[in-house]
UniProtKB/TrEMBL annotation:
Domain of life from the UniProt record: Bacteria
Spans through the membrane: 12-33, 45-63, 70-88, 100-119
InterPro entries: DoxX, DoxX-like_oxidoreductase
UniProt organism field: Phyllobacterium leguminum
Membrane topology classification: Multi-pass membrane protein
Keywords: Cell membrane, Membrane, Transmembrane, Transmembrane helix
UniProt-recorded name of the protein: Putative oxidoreductase
Keyword set includes Methyltransferase: no
Short name of any one Pfam family annotated for the protein: DoxX
Cell compartments where the protein resides: Cell membrane
Amino acid sequence: MPTQISGFAPQILSVLRIFAAGSFFTHGTMKLFGWPAPFEYPLNPLLYTAGIFEVAGGLLLILGLFTRPVAFLLSGLMAFAYFIAHGSDGFFPVLNHGEAAMLYCFVFLYFAAAGPGVWSLDALRERKAGANLTDTAQAV
């Protein structure tokens, strides 16, 4: 049975995307720029590369631009991060400190499948493309 809040699902999807991507973005800014706090560990090439993906991918997801392919790529990055950095410390994410990587992995996989929501540049591009198709059809 649908509830009143289910009518807001496209907007809530956008809010989830924006807040998850914003948090993810700050993981990258810590690695690359020391903001909002310095990164705790010395950067090696793997962490530096992850920081680039976190900043660039996080920014694209905040904007909702190229959401599906970017989210799919970041989901894989987080699966890789989980198994490389956390999985070897035991099975349970709460014990191996891999909860964030696991959650990002599956939230981003959801965005890859569900799309960005209505508040996104992707949705704006789709609306403009639809309007252009309508204009073209009317001209013919």
